[in-house]
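Hey, I'm writing a tutorial for new members on how sequence and structure tokens pair up, and I'd like a real worked example in the thread rather than a made-up one. If someone can provide the structure for the chain below, I'll link this post from the tutorial.
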Amino acid sequence: MDKGYIISTVSLDLFSQWLKSRNYSHIFILVDENTRTYCLPFLLKEMDFLGNSHVIQIASGENEKSLATCELVWSELLRRNADRNSSIINLGGGALSDLGGFAASVFKRGIRFINVPTTLIGMIDAAFGGKTAINFKTLKNQIGLFAKPEMVVVCTKFLATLAQQDVMSGFAEMLKYGLTSDRELWEKLIHLDAAELKNLDSHLIESCLNLKNSVVQQDFHEKNYRKILNFGHTMGHALESLSFGRNRLSHGEAVVHGMLFESILSNQSGLLSDNELSEIKSVVDRYYMKLKIQPDDFEKLYEIMSFDKKNQNSVVNFTLLKSIGAAKIDNYIAKNEILKSLDRFNKL
């Protein structure tokens, strides 16, 4: 548990022991309508002493990462007399843990929180690493802070509750770890059958967690090395934001196409070989439906990317690939090169 997370494929016994050792004045459990139905009963069965905890329910989805939803959470905390010795268990996917962590971190200047991710993307990425955020004016993760959960509890039994689309969303982030840090992991992942991912080997999940943990420990506040984890996310967040109010892309769908775009940009910048770009393209095509970006949206995507937190002097900053398994941070790319790569993305 010194790594800050617990992995279980069977039960929540270890988490139960750890939680009983804490002296919280109140425990709150944040859920959405899905995790209240499919996940909370299992949690309470395994940890019946939580039966008297206060449950706060919000609506599911990325749209709920808002100040309005935070106000709902804060109102419930006040109504139930939460104090600075209280804790929130965030039981849900990445959007819920993002919001729950942010709401906890600023309430009374910060109360503790625990993430119990119920989606694959939450288990291997969103719930772990200390980033909390909400969206603002349709732009993703514009308001937030770095705040570590006291514990992250990964129980792979929750994967069985997911729709296949949600599993594939998380798988995109696993591919990112292989592309940026570990060629051997990439080789293992690309030989998996998509239908088997609900029964994913916990060792693969732990490999991803260990990779992220190593990066985060070296650069918690993302001043330097941690930027490798942003591969695919500069374009991915722009695609996700653009899809608000349209045919909505999941985070993973946006990121996997963001990774393909940024692989094209890597190749165009003289970093990634033609053969490795072709390999990445074939893997994306095997697991995900092709995305066509309308030329009329090129300028809008560039405009959204111009708000990215990593930019300097209005030049968009990308993490790119030198090869599969090796990333290069701080690549400031001119607008004309971005637009050129968007055109290549559609033609590839």
